[in-house]
Structure formats: C-alpha cells, structure tokens
Amino acid sequence: MRAATVERWRADRLDRRVREVRERARHLPAEADPDMALQHNTWDDVEIEEEQRTRAEAEVRSQHRAPPAVAEACVREAALRWDAHYLQNIRNYHDRKYLHNEFPPLRAPLGKAVILETGCGVGNTLLPLLAAHSAVRLVGCDLSPFAVRCVNERLEREGLAARGRAFVWDIAAPPPVDQLQPHMLQADLVLAVFTLSAISPDRLGTAFSNLYDSLRPGGRLLIRDYGRLDSKQLKFCRAPNGRLGGEDGLEWYCRGDGTTVVFFTLDAILALATQSGFEVEDLRYDRRLMVNRAQHTRLYRVWVVAVLRKPMDNGKASKHTTFTSRRLPHACVRLWGLATETRRARHSMLALVFTVLVSRMAAPYCIQTLRRAALSFRA
Ligand SMILES: C[S@@+](CC[C@H](N)C(=O)[O-])C[C@H]1O[C@@H](n2cnc3c(N)ncnc32)[C@H](O)[C@@H]1O
C-alpha cells in the first residue's frame, strides 16, 4: 500500500474510534442495598448521600484560611511550581481519549478547524486530538515553560509539528504579541480541561475574557473541570493551610506541591461565562461514584462540563474587555447626559453635532474644489 493510502486509512480508523460514545448507563438504584455498589468500580450520575453532604458542607465552611502571604506566593510562583510539578510527575500523565464523550462539538467532523488548547500541560489532550483528526490545526498554551517544551518535543517526535505547536501564555494576562498569529484569535474551538481550576478566583474573569477574545464569532469554549464537593476538595479541607480563599462555588485550595485548585459550582461558571459575553449551550455536573471493592470505600467524584458559545454578532460586551469596547459608549452617553442638563447647553450640543455632521459631509467637496483650483492654477 502507498504511504498516503496507509495514512488516510489510519486517520479514518482513528476518526471512527473518536466518534464512538460511551453510554452513561450504569445507574445505582435508589433503594439498592450497600453491597450492590460493590458489584462495579464506577456508577454514573450518583449524587452524594444527604448525610455525607451535610458533613462535607460543614467541613468546607469551618476550615481556616491560610495567611494571605501563602496565597500571594502561590500566584507569584505559579509558573515555577507547575514546572516543578511536571518534572516530578511527567510519567503519571496519560493521554485523554474520552473528551469526545463529553463534548458533542468534538464528535462533529472538524475538517480544518483551528483549536486552541489552554493549559495544555504536556500534551495529553492536544496530541491525541491531532492524531485523531487528520486536518485540524492545534495550538496549545500553558503557563509552564517546561510543559510547553515537552509538547513541542513530542510533536516533533510524532511527526505532528506541521499542524501543532505550543507556546507559553498565562491566560489571565494579555497574550504574548510575538507568539500571536491571526488564526489564533479566530479559533473555532478553545479547550480548557482542568485549566481554569488552576487559576486564582480573582483572575478568572480576565481569563474568561481572553478565551472569549480568542474565538471567532460562533466558536465554542469547552470546559471540563473540578466540581464543588468533589472528593478531592474534601481531602484539601483537612490539610492545614489548605484553603487559600475564594467564595462559595469558587473555593480555592493549595496542593501539597504548591500548585492550586478551585472547585466550581455551575452558578459560578454561569456568572463568569455570561459576564464575558458567552451564550451557554450546555452546563452540567458529571457525577460518578468510584468504589474500591477491596477496601469497601466510596469516592464521590464531581466535575463541571460546559459548552459556551461566542455569539455570532459578537454583540454582547464583556465585563472584562478593553476600555474602548466597554467604557467608551458609556462615557459618550454620560457626557451627553451632562451636557444636555440645561436648555442652553442642549442647544449648543445640537449645534455642535450639526456642524460636525455638515463639515464631514462637505469636506470631500471642499477638497475636490481646492484640488481643481490648484490644477487650473498650475496649468
Ligand atoms: C491540572 S493541569 C491540566 C493539564 C491538562 N489540561 C490536562 O488535562 O492534562 C493545569 C494546567 O494549567 C496550567 N496553568 C495554570 N495556570 C495557568 C494560566 N494562568 N495560564 C495557562 N495555563 C495555566 C498548568 O501549568 C497546568 O499545565
């Protein structure tokens, strides 16, 4: 077989595998006896039991917060800490091959779509997506320079560098101008898989706005992240200096290695999304019960899943966008209001607007007449 045919066959097989969806069909009956849960390792759509929920809420609320200096250091040194995290754990990361289960936009034919993956880490989402969709272009970004280097090396090794690359960008800060190419600000899809939870709550609004600005009108932001009262949150609740801050629904914790994590409610995601101008297509919890059958223990896992769309008309102003797009129209309206408070001021304002309009319309004729006069003078 010729190389091109082999390549097409391989891409086609991968494409088909990516479109196979796992049904969420393993449900634990409400009145099931405790032993029934031990029949499987995981159960779908299981809510945390009422008694455990009350206990968990009390634990979350009663935890003391770490001194502000601890939180400040976490933000200041975030890039260094993520570098160290990957140096320590590089072998613990496995490729994510389930994302098409969560996100219908990833199951549709993607053609030559441009995808921006934010917080791409060492490429466990980016590489499988590139391999599975034979024409898409994927750009990854991450705060950690070490992670970005790993992605670019792996892209070269796997022969995918022509369609993918990664660069360093803290998505809660303006994008780096030297790395910015026009197609990146017109992405069809932006992915944030366990990335937004790594950003401190006070910087999340700016991060959402930057992701909004990276999409073309009609493009989608796909989010999968930690949900409130996930079993991991309850683990952090017991650690001294574990809680850094954040309000209900954006509770913010420090891991043992100094990297941080936020646990979201749907309301918190909804507020951030709508303030940035997104329309919500899908927003839900993904809840699962994980059973350790040997030790008879249960873990309630909670994730948030969202598909947000940038409106076609790009009409909604973002709460966090630039001065010109957000405040200038308000400033004009305010100025008009102030200037038209008295009758005389109102008349002067109208006269001014009239003069400006007439002079704008008359300017081309004046210029033309002057040019003609100059030509006839020269002749
Ligand atoms: C929990 S990891 C998830 C990595 C990857 N998305 C995955 O699912 O395997 C969070 C990632 O977000 C990155 N990150 C943290 N803060 C960031 C920021 N402000 N801008 C961009 N990336 C950030 C970290 O370096 C890290 O790679």
Overall description:
- The chain is of the alpha/beta class.
- Helix content is about 40%, strand content about 20%.
- It has twelve helices and eleven strands.
- The chain has an eight-stranded mixed β-sheet. A three-stranded antiparallel β-sheet has the order 7-8-9, sandwiched between helices.
- Helix 8 crosses helix 10 (about 265-275).
- The longest helix has about 35 residues, at about 345-379.
- The radius of gyration is 27 Å and the shape is globular.
- The N and C termini lie far apart (about 75 Å).
- The chain binds S-adenosylmethionine (SAM).
- S-adenosylmethionine (SAM) binds near residues 118, 143, 147, 172 and 194.
> What would you report as the Rg, rounded to the nearest angstrom?
27 Å
| Number of separate strands | 11
- Give the uncertain stretches in residue-range form: 316-334
- In angstroms, what separates the terminal alpha carbons? 77 Å
- Percent of residues in beta strands: 15-25%
Q: Report the sheet with the most strands, covering strand number, pairing sense and barrel closure.
A: 8 strands, mixed
Strand order of the largest sheet: 1-10-11-6-5-2-3-4
Structural class: alpha/beta
